[in-house]
Amino acid sequence: MRRAAWLLALLWLGGNASDAAAFAVLLAIVLMVIANAVRGRKWQVYELAFVFFAWYAAFDHARFTFLAAVLTTPILAKDLTRSFFPEFTQKTIPAFNLLIAAGCIFVVAWFLKPSTKLDERMATDWPLQTIASIQPNWRTLNQEHLGGLMDFNGKPSFIDTRWDIFEHHGEMKDFINILRLHDSLDLLDKYRIDHVLVRQDESLSYLLEHTRGWSILRQEGTGHDQYTLFARTPGSAAACMAAPAQATPMH
Questions:
Q1: How many domains would you assign to the chain?
Q2: Which residue in 18, 66, 158, 189 has the fewest CB atoms around it within 10 Å?
Q3: 140 and 171, same structural domain?
Q4: What's 217's DSSP letter?
């Protein structure tokens, strides 16, 4: 239920791909309910199983939203056709096909942006220069949504958005506790973390900024997209905690 509430809350926040996926899930559910309220039908057991499994998976893990779309789109199309487009003729079929094709072209044109605009957006939303400065021998705790970009650039990361994978190994729980300031410094020592890359407005950022043994290497971005790269101060007690060679491996 907590994941479902989170997905519902995304609808009202707006601004990124996850929000668009949440809106699409809710819209599909609403359309399916309305279509069956307008003109109901007898459901097959396998159809009910597919629908409930699809929406449960979408609410449980955001990545399964696209699986839910694959499973439920044929059923939703059948319901909409039965309720709102009961009869097609030789005149209406070409017109409807043209409408669908025009809609597809519009969506493709909307999402495909010139490379210059993509580069500008990337530079605005992501700390590209800071990620480029990360060294291979660093043990960097990163904001989870930066993990994929760090891996793409060959930089070692602590975590990424494949949350279910890290949850099985206990790293997700430790990562959340670090961000929520539950024994953060002890957990950083546990993983021998010597660098931290997080948003400036994170509580962890405030903690490290006011903790002896940690210093700011660089900052990048503005507003909510401002990131800070912290490093253990050489020679400090905090730096000595990260010195031993044997440590929990980084990804």
A1: 2
A2: 66
A3: yes
A4: E
